[in-house]
Write a structure and sequence with these properties.
UDP-galactose 4-epimerase, domain 1; 2 domains; 7-stranded parallel β-sheet
Length: 284
C-alpha cells in the first residue's frame, strides 16, 4: 500500500496519475483534508482517506496498513515543520516501511529561506529510524509561467534573480520521479538532487515568451524588497510574495541551479524544456 499526502494538490494528483500506470488503484491511498475534492480519485478506485495535520489521530487512521508513504511537503509556510512532525509520528506509530519526502534542491546548502523547514524535516526523518528517500526538488517551471499573462499585459517579466541560472523542470517531471521513488526497489537512503536538464536566466525566459507570443517582453530585474512589493501590489498574499522574492534572490546566488541531471536519469527521459511549458501556458 502506497499512501500519498496532499493528494488533491497539483503535485499530488500528478503523482497518483503516475502510480496508476503501474500499481493497482486499490493499493493507492490518497490522504486529503476534504474528501469531496477527491471524488474523481475514488471513482478510479483509489482509496481516499481524510486527515488533518493538526489532528494526530486522523493521521494514524489514514496511514493504517501503509507500506510506503510519500510525504508531499505542506503548503502552509511557517507550519510545515510541525505538520511534517505529525505525519512522521503517525508513520512511526503505523510502522511504515519507507517514507519519501519532497524537499528542496540542495537543501543543506541552499540560500533559499524555504530550505529551513525542509532541513528540519530531513533531520526528523533521519531521527525516526524509518527508512527514507529524499526527493530534493528544484524549481517548477510553472512557478514562472504563471506570470506570463501579467508579463504580456505589461511587456515585462519582473523578478530579482539577476543573471542566476535556473535549472527548472515541469511539475509533471517531478511527479514522475516521486512515483518511481515509491515503486522502484532499493530506494532507502537515497537523496536525489532533482533539477531540469538545461538552465536559463529570466532574461532568456522573457525572450522565449516574446518569441512564442510575438509580443515584446523584457526582463525587469528588481531589488528583492521592490519585487516583493510589486507582487503584493498584484494581489499576492504577503507570505507568498516574500517566498517568491526570497527564492528569486536565492536563484541569483545559484540556489536553483544544478547540472547533474539526476531527474532525467531517474525518470528515464529528458526533462520538459521550459519552451514547452511556456507554450502550454500560452495555449491555455
Amino acid at each position: 500500500m502506497i499512501v500519498v499526502t496532499g493528494a488533491t494538490g497539483r503535485l499530488g494528483r500528478l503523482v497518483i496519475e503516475n502510480l496508476l500506470r503501474t500499481e493497482p488503484a486499490s493499493s493507492i491511498v490518497a490522504v486529503v483534508r476534504d474528501p469531496a475534492k477527491a471524488a474523481d480519485l475514488s471513482i478510479l478506485g483509489v482509496q481516499v482517506r481524510q486527515a488533518d495535520y493538526t489532528q494526530p489521530a486522523s493521521l494514524r487512521t489514514a496511514l493504517a496498513g501503509a507500506d510506503k508513504l510519500l510525504l508531499i511537503s505542506s503548503s502552509e509556510l511557517g507550519q510545515r515543520a510541525s505538520h511534517h512532525r505529525a505525519v512522521i509520528d503517525a508513520a512511526i506509530y503505523c510502522e511504515v516501511k519507507l517514507i519519501g519526502y519532497t524537499s528542496v534542491l540542495h537543501a543543506n546548502t541552499s540560500p533559499l529561506g524555504l530550505a529551513d523547514e525542509h532541513n528540519q524535516t530531513e533531520a526528523m526523518l533521519k531521527a525516526s529510524a524509518i527508512p527514507f528517500v529524499i526527493l530534493r526538488n528544484g524549481w517548477y517551471t510553472e512557478n514562472y509561467t504563471i506570470s506570463i499573462p501579467t508579463a504580456l499585459a505589461h511587456g515585462a517579466l519582473m523578478g530579482s534573480a539577476g543573471d542566476g541560472r535556473i535549472a527548472s523542470a515541469a511539475r509533471a517531471d517531478y511527479a514522475a520521479a516521486a512515483a518511481l521513488a515509491m515503486t522502484l526497489p532499493d530506494q532507502a537512503g537515497r537523496v536525489y538532487e532533482l533539477a531540469g536538464d538545461t538552465a536559463y536566466t529570466l532574461s532568456e525566459f522573457a525572450a522565449e515568451i516574446s518569441r512564442q507570443s510575438g509580443k515584446a517582453v523584457s526582463y525587469m530585474n528588481l531589488p528583492r524588497a521592490d519585487y516583493k512589493s510589486a507582487l503584493v501590489g498584484f494581489g499576492l498574499p504577503e507570505p507568498i510574495a516574500d517566498l517568491l522574492a526570497d527564492s528569486d534572490s536565492g536563484a541569483s546566488q545559484g540556489g536553483l541551479f544544478d547540472d547533474k541531471r539526476q531527474l532525467s536519469t531517474l525518470i528515464g527521459r529528458p526533462t520538459t524544456p521550459m519552451a514547452e511549458t511556456i507554450a502550454a501556458e500560452l495555449k491555455a
